[in-house]
């Protein structure tokens, strides 16, 4: 909730009018002025109208129902079927289909009828869509007060049955009979009211229909996505996140930078935004993204992390300023004048909803006082025990108030947490002033509902969604009406699209930074786009440009881009004086879009008009400077030159453009076409003789003439452009991140493995020898076998098996050099310390030909052993959450597999388990509650002594688990044999028998009693799982943390 009169937190993303000149207002679309004219069907087009009850949602293409009509003219002469213009429902086009139909009666007399159908998505080529709908098909009467003739349908529309209706809706005779009242002036009007369910197999353009985009769910990150959307729409926080300094941060570990990236993409992207880089910055592994968490818990952790990251920056204190409130806890004695007070801060308020009707009842319950009397009197120090009342009262509320409705509570009857799904009312606006402590300071306590995060499911798991009111003004109806008005204008533009053409305008600034052939990259160019009527004259277009650019017409000259026969795209002259009255579509030679270069008089030149240009005696030349040291091209502008001018006349001009002294020696080249750049030697000759087929738009590339150029990799611009022709774009994806979009690099096809590794390592900020690369599998976007660092081929060979449009190579970052790794075996396992509190995944790199002993030696280098431990490690196996002894130290590593359901765990051996006597045995121990198949927590081995009193064994186990005594007292102990628990009698006389833990003989299937198939008993600890219950992939459970 946001303060009602707090503009910084109320004026969120406005769905209605948009301020295009203010970035902070989170604009997503431009405001289109309304000329006030009514939108009417074009001449000659059938009329598509909506009845009165649908006018409010006339242009909402995502609506679930609509009513639309179609008037058929000259019915008596109709021979073929007709289709109405589309009416969009659920973003699908629906049309009325009408036709004359004929059939034979029993008397074999032909009978004509009116065929009336509803068609859905008829022009789609997709075969995967479907949409269920009900509809009423009506033939409207022309007589006042007469009801229409109607019939109803219900149908699942899909590609093979995309129309449904009646072949014989009404006899042709009745349709044409004026007495029936359905025809007038040889025209009938058909109407359909359709109600459609949400379609399947149809893409949804969220940005188009709502102005916003969503966040991708990584697996179980719905709680995080819902909260991120809410925080994104909190203006003050979003602005503060943008202002956090991140220039020197590690891009893979900076939470601030990753959050900035997510917020920026939510603002500007057209597609759903990914959060993998954000969770990676949290220090999370892939498994963490598949664990469900409580959204309130994540909110506290995230705000705490942001608050710490903002310290020492220009936005320090933003989090408490926005979300921190204060309350006073008090205990007031009844019979004496003594009160104890303590001021506490809060970031959210947890409200009890059980038995409460609405939010005010919950607040009344929160501030209600508790009477301390009888045995529960308050110790007032020197005043002794006193009757008192205990309670809280709020001293201030924050600008943004988080309320947590406590739907999960502990149920003592079932001894577990349950969810209350009772109805609970909250309102769009609330006033909490009655719960504030009376103070001289004015504290605002009026709030507007900003967002509601909803959890569906139970305490074992579920799904989060969020409903957000971005503007917080409650004016949803006005905003929707404004959206529909804008959409109506867009619909009009779409209907009239054939009357318009697109003109893509480039200015000279657009050529700066271009490193390829010609003057710009047609696929990456940022055009200034104008929509112009095709029949508008060139003069009218110049007037539009003049008004938009604030230049006079004399200061503007148009140079259309023309595709030459030699595969280049260069500006050419348009004869403005003779072509001023020609339609612009003729000037563009019917091309659409029309790409043009607009030349403008330099603002500091003082010219009221551009210099004159004679198409017969002048030529337009463009200049590029090549820097061999940096291997870069710099654009140096354009110039009009007489065709009879000598080449050497260009040298002073080029030196001036490059900032060189006037007499600097330079080398000139002509850029003729891709991979063809020729040196100009005859400087004393005229341009028309030296340049090949001299034309407007020719490009001169020049560079400084220096001896040291030869030391560079690409010493001349000819070498540069030749290398350019071999360049390709390659996407590098992190193999360890599922569906990683990767990053794009432009590299030469001829580079070697070593050069590629060096380029990628510079991009990632790591050592090239700490990278391992993988080719794509044959025509699949999946990593294949790893590349050897001694690979002697080229990049072209590496991407030969990639899909034609996407060149992709996978990589992973290593902790050891790749040349060492090729003699190693990668081994993933779990490390658990002696206290059974710390658990983490580790990756070890033992020698390929090594044994388990070598693996344990590698682990010792990576893990931290306990001070009082044995210093010796062992490896265990976990299968289906059950612990088993691992392979012996002399077992070759090549026989171990880390794939499948088996997990290897390495741990330090406790001192008392190093040397076992004959009457001692190691027994697997696991936690469960009621059902032995539902184990949880961390399983472990424990030493059992034969004949040891049970109570003594319990005492040792209590020390090993290191938990509170009250919790341990609730444990029940069972020997689990053949998946059946046999509970141990907790008596002083009971002693442990190691025979109870010997492998169990299967009486039903005797053949399974050999070797590993024997069922081994284990010690079960039966107690309630106090950890939050969530879906798990394996036995690991983690509290939510942000590590970086």
TrEMBL record:
GO terms for cellular component: cytosol; nucleus. Residues 65-194 form the MATH domain. It comes from the Eukaryota. The keyword Methyltransferase does not apply. SMART domains: MATH. One of its GO terms (biological process) is proteolysis. Transmembrane segments: none annotated. One of its GO terms (molecular function) is cysteine-type deubiquitinase activity. Residues 213-505 form the USP domain. It catalyses: Thiol-dependent hydrolysis of ester, thioester, amide, peptide and isopeptide bonds formed by the C-terminal Gly of ubiquitin (a 76-residue protein attached to proteins as an intracellular targeting signal). Keywords: Hydrolase, Protease, Thiol protease, Ubl conjugation pathway. Its EC number is 3.4.19.12. PROSITE patterns: MATH (PS50144), USP_1 (PS00972), USP_2 (PS00973), USP_3 (PS50235). SUPFAM superfamilies: Cysteine proteinases, TRAF domain-like. Belongs to the peptidase C19 family. PANTHER family: UBIQUITIN CARBOXYL-TERMINAL HYDROLASE, UBIQUITIN CARBOXYL-TERMINAL HYDROLASE 7. This is Ubiquitin carboxyl-terminal hydrolase 7.
């Amino acid at each position: 909730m946001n303060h009602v009169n707090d503009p910084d937190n109320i004026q969120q993303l406005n769905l209605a009018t948009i301020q295009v000149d203010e970035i902070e207002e989170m604009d997503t679309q431009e405001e289109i002025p309304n000329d006030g004219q009514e939108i009417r069907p074009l001449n000659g087009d059938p009329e598509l109208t909506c009845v009165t009850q649908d006018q409010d949602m006339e242009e909402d293409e995502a609506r679930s129902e609509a009513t639309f009509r179609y008037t058929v003219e000259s019915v008596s002469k109709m021979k073929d079927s007709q289709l109405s213009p589309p009416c969009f429902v659920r973003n699908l086009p629906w049309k009325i289909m009408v036709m004359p139909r004929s059939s034979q009666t029993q008397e074999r007399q032909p009978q004509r009828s009116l065929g009336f159908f509803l068609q859905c998505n008829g022009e789609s080529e997709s075969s995967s869509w479907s949409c269920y709908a009900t509809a009423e098909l009506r033939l409207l009467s022309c007589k006042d007060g007469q009801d229409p003739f109607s019939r109803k349908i219900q149908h699942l529309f899909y590609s093979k049955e995309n129309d449904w209706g009646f072949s014989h809706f009404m006899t042709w005779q009745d349709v044409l009979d004026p007495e029936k009242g359905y025809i007038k002036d040889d025209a009938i009007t058909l109407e359909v009211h359709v109600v459609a369910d949400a379609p399947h197999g149809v893409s949804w353009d969220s940005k188009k229909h709502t102005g916003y985009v969503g966040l991708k769910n990584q697996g179980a990150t719905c709680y995080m996505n819902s909260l991120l959307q809410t925080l994104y729409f909190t203006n003050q926080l979003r602005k503060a996140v943008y202002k956090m300094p991140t220039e020197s941060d590690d891009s893979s570990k900076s939470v601030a930078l990753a959050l900035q990236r997510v917020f920026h993409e939510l603002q500007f992207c057209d597609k759903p935004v990914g959060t993998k880089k954000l969770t990676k910055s949290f220090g999370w592994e892939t498994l963490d993204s598949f664990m469900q968490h409580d959204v309130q818990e994540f909110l506290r952790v995230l705000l705490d992390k942001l608050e710490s990251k903002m310290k020492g920056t220009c936005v320090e204190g933003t989090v408490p300023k926005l979300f921190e409130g204060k309350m006073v806890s008090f205990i007031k004695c009844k019979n004496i004048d003594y009160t104890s007070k303590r001021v506490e801060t809060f970031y959210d308020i947890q409200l009890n909803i059980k038995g409460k009707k609405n939010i005010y009842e919950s607040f009344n319950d929160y501030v209600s006082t508790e009477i301390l009397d009888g045995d529960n009197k308050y110790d007032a120090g020197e005043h002794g025990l006193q009757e008192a009342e205990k309670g809280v009262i709020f001293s201030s509320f924050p600008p943004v108030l988080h309320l947590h409705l406590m739907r999960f509570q502990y149920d003592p009857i079932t001894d577990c947490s349950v969810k209350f799904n009772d109805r609970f009312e909250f309102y769009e606006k609330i006033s909490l002033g009655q719960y504030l402590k009376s103070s001289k300071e004015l504290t605002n306590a009026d709030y507007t509902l900003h967002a509601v995060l909803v959890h569906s499911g139970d305490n074992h798991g579920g799904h989060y969604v969020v409903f957000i009111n971005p503007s917080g003004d409650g004016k949803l109806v006005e905003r929707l009406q404004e959206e529909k008005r804008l959409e109506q204008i867009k619909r009009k533009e779409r209907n009239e699209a054939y009357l318009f053409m697109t003109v893509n305008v480039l200015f000279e600034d657009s050529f700066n930074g271009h490193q390829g052939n010609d003057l710009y990259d047609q696929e990456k160019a940022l055009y200034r786009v104008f929509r112009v009527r095709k029949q508008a004259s060139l003069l009218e277009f110049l007037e539009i440009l003049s008004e938009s650019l604030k230049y006079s017409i004399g200061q503007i000259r148009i140079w259309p881009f023309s595709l030459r026969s030699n595969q280049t795209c260069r500006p050419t002259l348009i004869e403005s004086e003779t072509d001023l009255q020609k339609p612009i579509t003729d000037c563009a030679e019917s091309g659409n879009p029309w790409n043009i270069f607009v030349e403008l008089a330099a603002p500091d030149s003082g010219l009221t008009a551009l210099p004159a240009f004679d198409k017969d005696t002048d030529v337009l030349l463009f200049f590029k400077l090549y820097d061999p040291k940096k291997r870069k091209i710099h654009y140096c502008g354009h110039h009009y030159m007489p065709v009879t001018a000598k080449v050497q006349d260009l040298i002073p001009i080029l030196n001036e453009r490059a900032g060189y002294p006037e007499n600097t020696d330079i080398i000139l080249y002509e850029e003729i076409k891709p991979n063809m750049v020729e040196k100009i030697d005859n400087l004393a000759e005229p341009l028309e003789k030296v340049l090949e087929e001299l034309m407007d738009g020719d490009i001169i590339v020049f560079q400084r003439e220096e001896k040291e150029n030869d030391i560079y990799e690409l010493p001349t611009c000819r070498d540069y452009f030749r290398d350019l022709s071999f360049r390709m774009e390659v996407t590098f994806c992190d193999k360890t991140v599922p569906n990683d979009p990767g990053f794009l690099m432009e590299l030469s096809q001829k580079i070697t493995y070593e050069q590629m590794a060096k380029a990628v390592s510079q991009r990632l900020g790591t050592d090239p020898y700490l990278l391992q690369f993988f080719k794509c599998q044959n025509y699949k976007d999946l990593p294949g076998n790893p590349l050897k660092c001694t690979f002697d081929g080229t990049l072209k060979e590496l991407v030969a098996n990639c899909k034609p449009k996407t060149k992709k190579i996978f990589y992973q970052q290593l902790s050891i050099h790749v040349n060492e790794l090729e003699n190693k075996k990668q081994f993933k396992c779990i490390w658990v310390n002696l206290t059974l509190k710390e658990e983490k995944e580790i990756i070890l790199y033992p020698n390929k030909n090594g044994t388990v002993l070598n693996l344990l030696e590698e682990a010792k280098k990576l893990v931290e052993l306990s001070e009082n431990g044995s210093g010796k490690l062992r490896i265990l196996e976990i299968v289906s959450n059950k612990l088993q002894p691992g392979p012996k130290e002399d077992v070759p590593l090549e026989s171990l597999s880390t794939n499948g359901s088996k997990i290897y765990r390495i741990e330090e051996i406790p001192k008392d388990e190093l040397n076992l006597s004959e009457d001692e045995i190691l027994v697997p121990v696991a936690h469960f509650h009621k059902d032995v198949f539902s184990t949880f927590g961390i399983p472990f081995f424990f030493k059992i002594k034969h004949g040891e009193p049970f109570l003594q064994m319990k005492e040792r186990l209590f020390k090993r688990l290191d938990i509170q005594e009250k919790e341990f007292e609730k444990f029940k102990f069972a020997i689990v044999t053949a998946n059946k628990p046999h509970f141990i009698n907790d008596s002083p006389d009971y002693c442990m028998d190691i025979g109870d833990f010997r492998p169990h003989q299967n009486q039903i299937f005797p053949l399974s009693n050999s070797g590993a198939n024997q069922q081994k008993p284990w010690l079960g600890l039966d107690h309630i799982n106090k950890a939050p219950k969530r879906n798990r992939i394996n036995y690991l459970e983690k509290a939510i943390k942000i590590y970086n």
